[in-house]
Amino acid sequence: MIHQKEYREECILQTHYDVTIIGGGSAGLTAAHLAQSLGAKVLLIDKKQLGGDCLHYGCVPSKSLIHVAHVVQQARQAAQFGSSATYQCVDMAKVSASIQGVVQRVGDTEKTYTEGVTVTFGHASFTSSTTLLLNNEEITSRRILIATGSHPAVPQLEGLQATGYLTFEAFLIGPEAVNNRKIIHLLWGKAHALHSTGSP
Predict the structure, then answer these.
(1) CA-CA distance, 141 to 177, in Å (whole number)?
(2) In what residue span(s) does the FAD/NAD(P)-binding domain sit (predicted)?
(3) Label partner for 145 (CA 20 to 30 A): which of 21, 32, 60, 139?
């Protein structure tokens, strides 16, 4: 008869790496690419998808939206420069689709960072300073780098739940962002101010 503890130990696979990185965002991808280029056997772990906040919720989609704001502002001012172009409205559903297209293209280019790297998705937990348990597999590694980034912290404010709010994760990818024109207009204002000062 096999006891439960013995059965669990028999089921766990063991794999060894030189470098294991927890978090597949900008920092994790860069570290994985660098370590692999130096000849290390590398494991990159993320919960669900590579790219991190920068690709999916931050830098890439926000800059794409600000670019749209630049274009809209230029269309509004076209007559000042002798152009017959007219500004009518913004189709936010198309803007959202365009932004996700940019995210997809940037994500495709980032795949080069994982060439020669083992990529695994799941929740990793430490069992020692050099050992992780991931998807019923025991991972041993000479070095483990934690590059898990951040997540939104929702303040405990009275009435916030009833009023409703957006975190940065829902800001640009959820249906709320498409319909929240006040936020979009704030970004247009920011883009116009940056354009006026000559900032990129």
Answers:
(1) 41
(2) 17-164
(3) 60
Among the listed residues 49, 184, 36, 47, the one whose alpha carbon sits nearest the alpha carbon of residue 104: 49
Q: Is residue 184 within 8 Å of residue 92, measured between CB atoms?
A: yes
Cα(135)–Cα(124) distance, integer angstroms = 8
- Is the residue at 98 inside a domain? yes
Does the residue 157 lie in any domain?
Answer: no
Instruction: Give, in degrees to the nearest 5, the angle at Cα 151 between 43 and 20.
Output: 10
Q: Residue 174 falls within a domain, yes or no?
A: yes
Q: What is the pLDDT of residue 1?
A: 41
**CATH number, domain containing residue 133:** 3.50.50.60
How far is C-alpha 23 from the chain's CA centre?
10
CA dist list (Å): 144 to 23, 26, 34: 11, 17, 14
Judge contact between 157 and 165, C-beta under 8 A: no
Residues in the chain: 200
Kindly state whether residue 158 falls inside one of the protein's structural domains.
Answer: no
Q: What is the pLDDT of residues 114-160, one digit of tens each?
A: 999 999 999 999 999 999 999 888 999 999 999 998 878 888 889 88
